[in-house]
Amino acid sequence: MGNRVRFERLASAAEYLNPSIALYQADTERVLADLKDLPASARAWTTYYLYMISGGRNYVDPTAVEKAALSAFKNLGPVEAIRILQTKPTGKHPDFQPRLIESIKNDPVKGRFWRQLEEYPPVFFPSLDGKDFILHYARELLRPEDVPLLLAGEKTAKPDEAAAWAVAAAEVAYGRSPSQSKGIIKEAMKRYPPTKQAALQAVLWRREGMKARRELINWFYTVSEATRGPSAILRYIHRAERADTNKFLAAIVADKRFNQTEYDVLGPLLEIVNQDLPKPLVPIEEIRHSSKVSIVMAEWRELLRKHFSNTGKKPGR
Length: 317
Known about the structure:
This protein is mostly helical. It is built from 20 helices and no strands.
């Protein structure tokens, strides 16, 4: 299949028409099936491209595409992953220039995506050089011997991107030396604000789970809610989908410092807890439109205490 037809299918899968996964699942499967015929490098880049336009949005099934992109990059091996990290960023991979699909851009329906891409490229494609994907999946794609390169990359990265290199270095280093990984985290914590510190602390959670609870909970209650660090670590912990997640959340709620928590912790915590319940403790609309007055926050804390007193000992995600 030529580039023209393949990109037509990509554009079709990216239409802004169907918010239901059931309706666009067929498009996802069809596109991914097409990509299997590509050479390894082209398959990796094209799948990554589709992942970028699907992640967190309702174009295609992002989970399926993300897994396909990770598998494709794994097949390229760590040497190619390192080459990507060392390549000077161009902003766009040459295979994905919109000029390849001029006819699609002019289509009144399929062209919407591409026209918006050209008008607002930072919104849709913060990066097309692959570095963000490699760093995010460094544990799966890189080796312990690549840690020095990651630490060097942190020093030359843009300020808002540097922490991702430190997180990747800590993640990869843990596979060979947990003590080296913790040393990287300790030093990097001095250089970044709480939201970035949360990403570093999340490495310990993914690797050690409840074994790291004392350090994680102490950090959680030491950092001000206003910095968004505590809410960020809650989301990282939830995304890791460890079997001991419920135990950790129960430990946060059982801590005497839980009385200090306000909306920026209680809101995200309730949203996470709600996802595993047949009936939410607090409806999402109420959480997001709360008056945030102290009496409401006290009620939320009590709801969470009761919830975990009943379920905290049961295994959860």
